[in-house]
Amino acid sequence: MTAELYHNFNICATCQAMVAENGRLRVEITRLEWDETIGMLNAAGGFRAINALPDGRYALVFCDIDYLKQINSATGNHMQTNRYLMSGLRVRRGEIAIRLMGDEFLFILTDGRGYADPVGFVERLTHQLAEQPLTAAERAGLPGGALSATFAWRASVKRADIRAAIERLSAAVLAQKAARPC
Question: Cβ distance 57 to 63 under 8 Å?
Fold first, then answer.
């Protein structure tokens, strides 16, 4: 009887350790899916969120913040740049913000029917970015002296087509940037 209790105790302790480890891993996965510096999903978390979206249609906005690397170089302050992004890329209910890479972002918009207004969203975001208070050193490296972004968007994208649409939007933004005079 004592051996059986000892065996059950060991099984119970092993199960508790597994539950604790599972909880730790869940927290770690969540941390790896969230960009704490700007308070939004990173690419891993973003694609997980996309996979969890219900079937339907969504508006997508791809955003590439212009001259972000120059601001970082001018100030040497990556955290200050992240502060600008946090306040400049504010989202509302029904909008999902994903930081794909350093200066590339994806926003998924829905009004419940899948016909959200990407143009109005881009106008709002452009205005929010332009309002960011920059230091003289940061402003010196920016044409126009304000944060700006290059956008591409597409309305009414089926959830199943979002990944392909992201690639097309990214290519469109790169083409726009390449066509600009240096």
Answer: no
Q: How far is CA 15 from CA 5, 24, 98, in A?
A: 15, 14, 36
117, two tokens: 């207004």
Q: At what angle do helices 78-88 and 68-75 cross, to 10 degrees?
A: 140
pTM here is 0.74
123-126 long-range contacts (CB < 8 A, ≥24 apart) are 125/61, 125/63, 125/88, 125/89, 125/149, 125/151, 126/151
Structure tokens at 110: 């829905």
111, 100, 93: which is closest to 41 by C-alpha?
A: 100
Give the chain's length: 182
Q: What is the pLDDT of residues 92-133, one digit of tens each?
A: 888 888 988 878 889 998 766 555 788 888 888 888 888 877
Q: Tokens for 82?
A: 């992240």
